[in-house]
TrEMBL record:
Keywords: Signal. Residues 1-22 form the signal peptide. This is WAP domain-containing protein. The lineage of its organism: Eukaryota, Metazoa, Ecdysozoa, Nematoda, Chromadorea. It comes from the Eukaryota.
């Protein structure tokens, strides 16, 4: 009787331990933002990740992507970023050579080139009101204190650091 009781006790303890063990991620690459979201740790650069992304990511891991689904991923491309964007990560929603970022001007998610380039003059929205403008920079090395470290034209006969 003691043996049966101790066996049942041991079995119930093992089942309890199995239920309470931490979730282990598969041995494949996991996106930085999804990793922290699953740990419930807030990261400001990941604020555009939502439950839909995790659902899609789980679906992709669960089964191979069929051709219609793969084509629909290409169609869901987002808008290009304005001049001021941050917190970029690779993501399937942006095309090849682009990153998914947060547009800090419009507070929305957007796609930006992997290599930072000067934005089009129309994105900068400068109004040319100075008669004799002075450039803030002449070359990229003049912009070592800005995030992008790029000297870009404004369309008003002067350059600014971005």
């Amino acid at each position: 009787m003691k043996f049966l009781y101790s066996s049942l006790l041991l079995l119930s303890i093992l089942q309890l331990v199995q239920k309470t063990t931490a979730y282990s991620f598969p041995n494949t690459h996991i996106d930085w933002c999804i990793y922290f979201q699953r740990l419930q740790i807030y990261k400001p650069e990941c604020k555009f990740y939502d439950d839909v992304d995790i659902h899609v990511e789980k679906e992709i891991r669960a089964k191979p992507i069929s051709r219609p689904f793969a084509n629909s991923l290409i169609v869901m491309q987002m808008q290009q970023c304005s001049a001021h964007y941050m917190y970029c990560t690779p993501n399937y929603q942006c095309g090849e050579g682009q990153l998914r970022c947060i547009d800090m001007t419009r507070y929305r998610e957007c796609c930006a080139p992997t290599r930072r380039q000067c934005p089009p003059v129309t994105h900068l929205n400068f109004r040319c009101i100075v008669s004799e403008p002075v450039s803030w920079c002449d070359k990229d090395s003049d912009c070592h204190t800005t995030p992008q470290q790029s000297c870009c034209p404004t369309g008003c006969n002067y350059n600014i650091c971005i």
